[in-house]
Amino acid sequence: MPIREIETKSLDEFWDTLSPIGSFPERMQKPIFRGQGDSEWSLTPSVLREEVNSKYKNISRTTTQIDQIVLFEYFMLLDFLHYSDEMGFMIPNDSPEFRRQMNFSVFTNRYGIDGAGWPSKEYFSFIALAQHHGIPTRLLDWTKSPLVAAYFSASQVLNLGNVSEKLAVWVIDSEDLKKLEGKLEYVTLPGSTSNNLAAQKGVFLIHRQPNGMSRDSAFSCEDVKNSVNKLFEVSQDVVATKVTLPSKLAGALLFRCARFDISAATLFPGFDGVARAALEYKLAKKLSGVL
Fold first, then answer.
1. What angle do CA 56, 278, 199 make, to 5 degrees?
2. Which of 8, 70, 104, 269 would bridge 115 by S-S if both were Cys, CB 3.0 to 4.6 A apart?
3. What range does the domain containing 211 cover?
4. What is the domain count for the chain?
5. 3-state class of 5 per DSSP?
6. What stretch of H or E contains 232?
7. What is the pLDDT of residues 21-53, one digit of tens each?
8. Span of 67-71, 113-117, 222-226 with lowest mean pLDDT
9. Is this structure's pTM higher than 0.70?
10. How confident is the model at residue 60 (pLDDT cuts 50, 70, 90)?
11. CA 123-237-35 angle, 5° bins
């Protein structure tokens, strides 16, 4: 069914619509939320985005489906694992078997033919850790908290070169995702996976690519850009809603979130989060015209 949009004009209307005690989220069994700095952005995992593809890959040659959808992500994760080892950082669910599965020949024998089953569950925690520290992956970040999602929508607006017309917080009932089994997978992980994950009350969605991807078929970002959106649009069982707010109110929204102890400092525990919060506070004041 068509994606539903609730257009709000004021910060209070936006806040009341998303409030955990408001009537809208309470109509759902287990709502989850995703904030985006531009309401027109599609629900595209970072590893499949055009800007990531052009930044990290050699675009002078044709990229196949398997190259981009499986192996590009694998090599990013392999490098993350290498440098984690160099620094002596522990990764979740580490074991001799996990290391064997990360071996190139073992990995390609398992997933490199048609990509079926990638990623399997034993990789989820590792991929989530990598994602929360900046590695592009196929995991699509969501949160159980509407306030956290509201913060991320405001933060993204503040850090955009060109301010969008409207920001958005997406809302779906995670219980309904059971009806999309095999297409869109709902993933929850222990808070011990990452301090960021715990602080952000993070959960994930994985869009399973169809079996039978071919090494002979060229990859195009347009093939996957709107794939999650299309799942929602054609589904008769899952209602996806995005609640929008004029982006010029992003500074005021960030201030409102801070009053509820939602900021970069609380969502990214550590000095990096503290510094980010200080900078975003300045950006919010600038956008809001506060001296």
1. 70
2. 70
3. 4-288
4. 1
5. strand
6. helix 227-234
7. 877 777 788 999 999 999 999 999 998 888 888
8. 222-226
9. yes
10. low
11. 55
